[in-house]
Amino acid sequence: MEKAVFFLVLAAFAVRLAAVPLVHQAGYTSDEREYVAIAGRIISGEGFVDSNGFRSVRAPLYPALLAVVFAVSGASLSLAHVLGCAIGSIAIYQGYVLAMRVWGDRTAALAAAAAMCVHPGLVIYSTLLQTEILYVCLLLAALTAGYRLVGGGKGAWVLGAASGFASLTRAVFVGFFPLVLAAFWWMKEERSAADVRNLLVAAAVCLFILMPWALRNQQIHGSLIPVSSGGGGSLLTGNNPYATGTWRTENGFEQWFRERAREKGIEDPSALGEAAANDLSGVIAREYMRDHPVQTLGLALRKSHIFWIFPITHSDSYLPVQAVAVGADALLLLGAALGAVAGWKFRRQLLPLFLAMVFFWLVQAVLHAEARFRLPVVPLLCVLFGYGAATLVSRSRLKETFGLPGPRVVFCSCAAGIIAVYVFTGWMFLRGMIH
User: Fold this and answer.
1) Is there a contact between 59 and 171 (Cβ–Cβ < 8 Å)?
2) CB-based burial of residue 244 (10 Å sphere; 0-12 exposed, 13-18 middle, 19+ buried)?
């Protein structure tokens, strides 16, 4: 690790440690309390079960990691916070390595790492006892390993292992894994039997890591659940007449849901088993989406707005913190747009990044959205931002990028769109239309 990157990682760790008490002035979030409680039940021998009695709704890796930490520290939250800050700081180094793989440009890679170091969302979620920052690290590890394979290096098992553990941290990665394999396969200009073998090894390692949890779920629920039994519930939360676009629903949802269940001969949905309830929710949600396409599209647009624009802060953050987060994200998007335009000649290299951003966005546009679900996309935007920053400090690169009208028009259009959306969002906030 070169000196500049080392000091960035060290600074990131110090900032994140200092932020722990500030972020938790109002206490712990509901998700944090849930993960701590699950870890405690694992240690006590009750097994993996949440406060609702569900055994497979939440992905298992982070609570299991917390259980290991508590077993060592005697249920002390301090060590868990230190570990989270350390993981968040490691992500800075991973962002630097990924940017170097994409651009081969030290200035761009350092700018990307610096952006990750100070991004409010990455700082805040490194201090929270939630899945997000661990997931970011594993996602970056998987992408970096894939780029290494494309470059002729080894490490197919790293790609598979990182992908398997990422899936056990956030179930959404299960759907992304085949796409990222396809993207890295497409990036290879000349393919050989070794490339096929590498992808097969990565897939086998990923499946090997997922198998114990899937078999455990099969034994408990009698159905195939690779990671989480909450997909149907998430789909229904985001697609119903009382949906808000987030995990919250308006009054009347429960009665509407019971009426839809009765139409299917189920008088008491709460008496269903976990897997059956998930299946029922999924069926009702898909029927609603099929019968109400205009409303579904409107909800998807609302969820897209939440995903891309709302500040990545925790639920109890203060308005000034949210304002700083909004400003940081606006600058990040503008810099990323510049980096994408300036680096378009590397578009083959950018495919996995764009694929990841589009995939995670569309998943939340279909399910339900929270600003924190954008967090895995932030390091990828920082990679683009890094090249944009490197372009700004290079007169020759600026001339090369904007010497033709096409790139100027594309960037100005992107910048105008970003600014317009943020201005519109600010107007909605001032009018009390969003909170």
Assistant:
1) yes
2) middle
